[in-house]
Design brief:
Length: 303
């Protein structure tokens, strides 16, 4: 009997007793439930596979809108900054499963796969793509959700099921962006390295020339390629990383506004406050008042 989206939704519902992001007991795997519609919010998303069980999520990247709903999944191949909202449809909550992309698993699987037998699908323009679930992937997702209900099964079977899910994604229509990512000489691999460099060194004085060298590109080609893949210029992306990190320091580490600003690389607290409000629509001093609105109803931020 084929696994349907409604069966996947029921299984997620049984594992999510409350609103928010719910740890699964398996590293890199998170269950998501939203009981009410949530307006677009800036998110900083690590490479992740998000499988929809119920409801609708939308990612806004410039003029593009990425809709993903039951029967579909989102692949984020490189760390991305975009706006995301959640729509509750009908009587039930939004339900989804998020699995962090493990690059070492992707590399290991690709080394064993015969890529020449895969359908010739062009790599998507952006670093994220929406794809349809096929029967094989539905089956893998459902068995993973069943394992999450048992502490013994999640320990014994969970890692192998996550590996199988990576394999199913690589085989599917949305897997080309991940396959391209591991071609380190290509655009995706170069931009991924640059994104990782920014993510680790965001507090340093980074410029286009430095980042282009990291990507092994000329500054002009790097700038255009980076914007094509991520939807942001390198400087916009760096600024977003800094502001998200500063927000975490204010909310969860108890840092003051000036402390957080300097910690992430700003030299002017006033400029930091202006840019923070422009991104989040509230000031840094108001951030703690908004913590409930952002209590894990959207995608996962990188650690």
């Amino acid at each position: 009997m084929p696994i349907t989206s409604s069966r996947i939704a029921r299984q997620i519902l049984s594992l999510t007793p409350h609103n928010g992001h719910i740890p699964s007991g398996l590293d890199g795997v998170t269950l998501m439930r939203a009981n009410a519609t949530v307006a677009p919010t800036p998110v900083l998303q690590e490479p992740t596979i998000v499988i929809m069980g119920q409801g609708l999520k939308r990612g806004y990247l410039g003029d593009e809108v990425f809709h993903y709903q039951p029967g579909q999944y989102l692949i984020v191949a490189v760390p991305m900054h975009f706006n995301c909202d959640t729509v509750v449809c009908g009587d039930g909550p939004m339900l989804a499963l998020a699995v962090r992309v493990d690059m070492s698993t992707i590399s290991e699987l690709l080394s064993k796969m015969n890529l020449s037998t895969m359908p010739g699908i062009d790599a998507p323009k952006r670093g994220m793509v929406v794809a349809d679930l096929d029967d094989a992937m539905n089956d893998t997702v459902y068995r993973l959700l069943q394992a999450l209900a048992s502490p013994d099964e999640v320990r014994v079977l969970g890692p192998q099921l996550v590996r199988e899910l990576h394999y199913r994604v690589l085989q599917g229509a949305g897997g080309e962006c991940l396959r391209a990512l591991l071609a380190w000489h290509g655009r995706y691999g170069s931009i991924y390295r640059a994104c990782e460099h920014i993510r680790v060194n965001y507090s340093q004085d980074l410029d286009i020339a430095t980042l282009a060298r990291e990507a092994a590109m000329s500054p002009s080609v790097f700038h255009q390629s980076f914007k094509t893949v991520t939807g942001n210029s390198p400087i916009q992306y760096l600024k977003a990383i800094r502001l998200h990190r500063a927000r975490e320091l204010i909310l969860y580490a108890g840092k003051g506004v000036a402390q957080a600003a300097y910690a992430v690389g700003y030299v002017s607290a006033s400029q930091f406050s202006r840019e923070f409000k422009r991104l989040f629509a509230y000031s840094p001093t108001e951030a703690t008042c908004h913590i409930g609105e952002h209590a894990a109803v959207h995608l996962l931020s990188p650690g």
